[in-house]
């Protein structure tokens, strides 16, 4: 059995772990060139890191069609229920829960979380997934934070980090994040979706390779990496 992580563009990933399909921040139809359509993806669980439209994305449509359980902070799952999503699991920053596929903990993210219609979306989060093959850390939209050192102490096998700058960490701070997290491997995300967050992921990967002990993995749209 294995865990496979597939980049669906921007901050959207599919994690397939021992037969369970998990979508993270499934913003698909809004991408300039999405690798797949919302009606093409399968999900047993959907994780939503914060309320911004480029992360909530197509969650409502996908959850209604697939019957997936949405895991997000308390405020976001309440809002999703108002949109007609039936299966939800509220958590909050620092809280972990053992789901059927593994434990999930919400981590600190320094960012905003307003929902698409202006509703209050609580605090933004990242996710630490404790999976059979190791820990997967999805940082969400965040600034560099020293709390990443604490996450690193838990042991991170694969980290998914924003490098786009402007709204989140840029390449310099994402490199410092790698030094705090000490992951075995790191995948950049949240870049090149729009000109405002244009970055060269390969130049960043070269710096990661030279300055840290982590192995950078630059994914193309729809490409996968095994945990
Ligand atoms: Ni955001
Ligand atoms: Mn974002």
Give an overview in words:
The protein has 227 residues and is an alpha/beta fold. It has one domain (4-213): Metallo-beta-lactamase, Chain A, CATH 3.60.15. Helices cover 22% and strands 29% of the residues. It is built from 6 helices and 14 strands. It has helices at 53-56, 59-66, 74-82, 147-153, 171-181, 201-211, and strands at 3-7, 13-17, 20-24, 45-47, 69-73, 88-91, 96-99, 102-108, 125-131, 134-138, 158-162, 185-189, 215-216, 224-226. The strands form 2 sheets. A 7-stranded mixed beta sheet has the order 6-5-4-3-2-1-14, covered by helices on one side. A hairpin with a 5-residue loop joins strand 1 and strand 2. Helix 4 (147-153) runs parallel beside helix 5 (171-181) and helix 5 (171-181) packs parallel to helix 6 (201-211). The longest helix is centred in the C-terminal third of the chain and has 11 residues, at 171-181.
Question: Would you spell out the secondary-structure blueprint of this structure?
Answer:
Elements: E1 3-7, E2 13-17, E3 20-24, E4 45-47, H1 53-56, H2 59-66, E5 69-73, H3 74-82, E6 88-91, E7 96-99, E8 102-108, E9 125-131, E10 134-138, H4 147-153, E11 158-162, H5 171-181, E12 185-189, H6 201-211, E13 215-216, E14 224-226
Parallel strand pairs: 3-4, 4-5, 5-6, 10-11, 11-12, 12-13
Antiparallel strand pairs: 1-2, 1-14, 2-3, 7-8, 8-9, 9-10
Helix pairs in contact: 4-5, 5-6
Bound molecules: nickel (II) ion and manganese (II) ion.
């Amino acid at each position: 059995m294995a865990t496979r992580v597939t980049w669906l563009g921007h901050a959207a990933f599919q994690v397939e772990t021992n037969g369970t399909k998990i979508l993270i921040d499934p913003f698909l139809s809004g991408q300039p060139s999405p690798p797949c359509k919302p009606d093409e993806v399968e999900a047993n669980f959907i994780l939503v890191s914060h309320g911004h439209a480029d992360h909530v994305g197509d969650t409502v449509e996908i959850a209604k069609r697939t019957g997936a359980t949405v895991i997000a902070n308390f405020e976001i799952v309440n809002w999703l229920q108002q949109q007609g999503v039936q299966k939800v699991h509220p958590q909050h920053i620092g809280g972990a829960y053992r789901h059927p596929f593994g434990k999930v903990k919400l981590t600190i993210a320094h960012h905003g979380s307003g929902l698409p219609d202006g509703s209050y979306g609580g605090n933004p989060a990242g996710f630490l997934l404790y999976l059979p093959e190791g820990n997967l850390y999805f940082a969400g939209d965040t600034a560099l934070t020293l709390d990443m050192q604490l996450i690193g102490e838990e042991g991170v096998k694969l980290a998914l980090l924003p490098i786009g700058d402007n709204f989140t960490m840029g390449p310099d701070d994402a490199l410092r994040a790698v030094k705090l997290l000490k992951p075995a491997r790191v995948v950049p995300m949240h870049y090149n979706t729009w000109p405002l967050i244009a970055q060269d992921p390969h130049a960043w990967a070269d710096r990661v390779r030279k300055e840290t002990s982590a192995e950078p993995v630059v994914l193309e749209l729809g490409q996968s990496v095994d945990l």
